[in-house]
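Appendix B, record 7
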Amino acid sequence: MYHSGSRETEHIDVEQYYVSPTWAGNPDALLDTLNRGHYFIRVLDVRTQQLIYSYGFSTLFNEWQTTDEAQNGGRRTFPETIRIPFPRRPVQIEWLVRDEQNQFTRSIATWVFDPDAEWVNTEKRAGEVMIRKIMDHGNPHHHVDVVIVGDGYTAAEAEAFFQRAAALVDTLFSIEPYRHLKSAFNVTAVLRPSLESGTDNPREGVYRNTALGTSFNTFGLQRYLMITNTRTVQDVASAVPWDALIVLVNTDIYGGGGIYNLYACTAANNRFTPYVFVHEFGHSFAGLGDEYYTSTVAYNEFYPRGVEPWEPNITALLHPPRVKWQQFVTPGIPIPTPWDKATYDRMVEEYQKTMQQLRESGAGAAKIAEVQRRYRKKMQHFFQRHPYRGKIGAFEGAGYASRGLYRPALDCIMFSRTTAGFDAVCGNAIQQVIYHYSK
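Structure tokens (predicted):
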């Protein structure tokens, strides 16, 4: 389908129905009760009007609506795909979007799908692909089926892709709660070889003919490495049963991104790749929000003031001292939680200023790496000595906002470049999705 519109409007145009060879979902959990994502699909039996399937998700389009281009009156169209288990008889499909209070009250599209219609295309869409099982624990219908799809790898580089994918899977399952729930997962790597190696980097004038069309500089943000045509990557992924999708891009430049129930994207060969891989999967798999607030982003007021975010690990703290993750709050901790934010902000500001000066002066890679090393050590010391380290409260600074939004813990994979672990709130949110697919 095509998802089009402006900052204030959006509409959906269906282009084509395809039948995929397999559906990996849990037949015992056809209704999504997690209340995550910017959109929500409802599938109803036309004859009985019974709700038979639903799921929440987000898109690149709804992120684009918060960019300068949209704010200035621009219009865009994004090719998109939704997936449902194939119905036995006609169904009504409803596409809902959250309103100003983050409730699913508005429908932006409703249409009827007839499974017996002659225009339902049964061609196989994956094309010529290479497949390798990384982890196999059994029946796809009762496990989380993760597919890692490579982009920018030529046929000659296929083994490098499969080895890198396996190494990053090891990293993911070294971190809780993935570690103790490892047996709930199946993981497969799939590669449609690209004609050229690498990925697009528009700021450098670099364009590569790759299988999936990944590119840096999405929405003008250099590190945002994404795919705007999600239909292609879903075609390739259809070679295997899958619930969650990760794209691994053959580049050593830092970058990535993740959108809930759509895909995660990660540069494969950067020294921060293990962190990015786990962080972005937190977005795409569990709907976790970014907890940081000091880095440059492409969005304007991504979280409107006075509205509680739907992400499970960010809160506007509208009714203190109650917080939406109350069951995890450390007894006796103050809400909101003081954490010497001014000192942290000052260290970040000094570092960013120093890095800008180094780059403008043409400093060498070794000098920049040394400054980065000292900064990370300084931050590590700040977190390790903090009296609220490891505690759950409501720490101001989250969701790209220095004020007015709060995160559960002092530090977490969703806050800083660390693979040390998720806090209890993020861990529980991940675990809920794992159980949804596997129980």
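Remarks on this record: The longest strand covers residues 104-113. The radius of gyration is 22 Å.
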